[in-house]
Amino acid sequence: MSRSSVSAMNWEARFKSDTPTLIQSGKNGKSRTGALALDSDNEDQDITMASASESNSARARPVSVAPELYIQDDESPLSQLTKHWMNERHAPDILPAQEELLASLLDHIRRQSEAVQLLRGEPSASEEEHIRIMLVQMEVERVKFIVRSYVRTRLFKIEKFARFIMTDATIQTRITTAERAHASRHAHLTDRHFHNSVLQSLPETQSHLDDTPIFMPPMITKPDETRPVFVHALRDCPPIRFHE
Amino acid sequence: MSLPQSLRTSVTPPELELIASQQLIEIIPLIAVEKTAFISGAFGPLQPPRKAQIPLWMAINLKLKKKCHIVAPEWLSVEFLQSRLDEEINEPGFSKLPFRYAEVSKLLLDVAPDDIQSTDKIRYLLKDLREARQAKSREGVDQINRGELSLSNLCSMEINEIRPFFVHAMGILTHLHRDASAEDQP
Fold it and tell me: What positions does the domain DNA replication complex GINS protein PSF2 N-terminal occupy (chain B) (predicted)?
């Protein structure tokens, strides 16, 4: 089943019409209002708001819209990253990588830090000047925190799903080359560790890591595509209905 | 571990506060600062006593150094909150409050109580509002099903509070449903 994701979600504070909705990803048609778009291919996001409610089951295919489409151009890279950060934190699956955005922010952080270093060297700086420098520096720290938390969230998911990532081509399109290399190394290392410590002493039929015994959960950890997420619609929109 | 256990199910209130403090707020500066380019945009120039819009975190920082007065947002007033509280008590739905009212009001009441009128009354009202809304969101538990649940006007802190439980409960309902339908079709 598809994970429905709403794009446009965002927890951006909008005074108007915020209606958070808890939706079940992908299952069961129900109408939700407000939520902007469901993307059957992307992950789920949390928090979205939708507006009114009525729930009739109905059929309408989730419209496939990449979440990025809903991030307005006039938003600063920082607020875009903050949204991606929150989405990543709440989505069960790995969301598309934001390489460019991240690169431009890291670049900006570097430029700001260099400017601070330069200004600090001036002995004649006034009190106002000190406050400016301090504020800029403080912002750099805040942005670094968000960047780190974002990257760590992805890292956590990548390690958790490492073996699955190696077997699934779709998920590989959403991660960067570096992330893919990390997943591969991680999967390889854990495999070898398990093999050396336990599996090699077991009978041939039980010594694999990808068995699919019946009545048992599969051995490869996969993203839980049925986990519900909160969706937060940013503007009023007609009810969105889920396809069964 | 790349992501500590405590951060895996939901974000924490301090993280929400960090996000909320990126919002702009009006201040009356007490010092002059030139226009400065920040990562989130250019702010300034600050020229007392002219009002200026700057991010909340910056305002808090300046306030702590006694370099500005914060202009309390319109909704952080007794009249506004009282009317929302009345609505909250008399209407079945959630009343409309700023999405991050909880975070912003806490920050402002902590840092700039002297810039806000009748803070005690506001604190009571916020607490009453919170309790009334919390009671409603608990009632929402009855309505959880495996489909969807629409909670209009719920705020970020409140969503964060109910998220782990609601997500888990809905997940279980889905599993139960799936197992039942799997048995129907041999």
Answer: 12-71
